Amino acid sequence: MKETKILMGMPVTVEIVDDGASSHDIEDVFSYFEYIDDTFSTFKSSSEMMRINRGELERSQWSPDMKEIFDLAERTKNETDGYFDIKTPGGSFDPSGMVKGWAIGKAADILKKKGFKNFYVDAGGDIEVSGVNEKGERWIIGIRNPFNVSEIVKKITLTDGGIATSGTYERGNHIYNPKTGETADSDIVSMSVVGPNVYEADRFATAAFAMGRDGIRFIERVPGIEGYMIDRQGIATMTSGFENYVL
To answer: How buried is 39 (Cβ within 10 angstroms: 0-12 exposed, 13-18 middle, 19+ buried)?
Structure first.
């Protein structure tokens, strides 16, 4: 069973291979993403995130999920030498680079608690997979050509893990280098990271992209993850273990 819905301004797709899956199971995942949007949106004036940015809520009043995201963001900032920071140059907070991967992982946990073992959850191209696909094989995921998004430049196979991509080709150059307060190195157009789960992949993909060309070397040094970078000239660079995922 597979369904797609536009949530948080992007397509969210859930596919469950196991027998017994129903539209109700998938709807539970969609409802969770609606909750995430209502909580963390930087566009909805009623969201908890916007209320925090307006100074209406003290930390003691924050939801447990909000506190968790801020704690994880601080941890990631320390692990990336400051290249991941949810505080914007304007002084407000935007946890988007942390929330999406974290939320996809939590959505996958909803399905696991229901007893499902073979599924994937895709939100805006960041993906968590579990088990195998309908053919009983590892999931196959395509990395888009940033210069022609209808074209796939690499296919990877994955089971029980996640992949996330940071880039400029869908939303423009929206990622800031926290150390300069300016947009990240425009010479990099795409940074894809594979990890043990999409949360790890997403947070490090965001930080690595902000680092520019040094990002792929950073990914090389982080245990358990691999990366694939495409620069403005269309030249790709991958970490030493990325080839193990390539179809």
So the answer is: middle
**What are the pLDDT digits (tens) for 180-221?**
655 555 689 999 999 999 999 999 999 999 999 999 999 999
C-alpha span between 93 and 237 (Å, rounded): 32
Angle at Cα 22 formed by Cα 25 and Cα 119, nearest 5°? 65
| Helices 23-40, 96-113: inter-axial angle, 10-degree rounding | 150
- CA-closest candidate to residue 238, choices 141, 139, 143: 143
End-to-end CA distance of the chain: 25
**What is the CATH architecture of 2-245?**
Roll (3.10)
Rounded Cα–Cα distance for residues 62 and 59 (Å): 5
Closest CA relative to residue 29, chosen from 106, 107, 126: 107
In the structure encoding, which two tokens stand for residue 104, read together? Answer: 């996809």
**Amino acid making up residue 173:** N
Environment class of 79 (CB within 10 Å of its CB; exposed 0-12, middle 13-18, buried 19+): middle
pTM of the shown model: 0.92
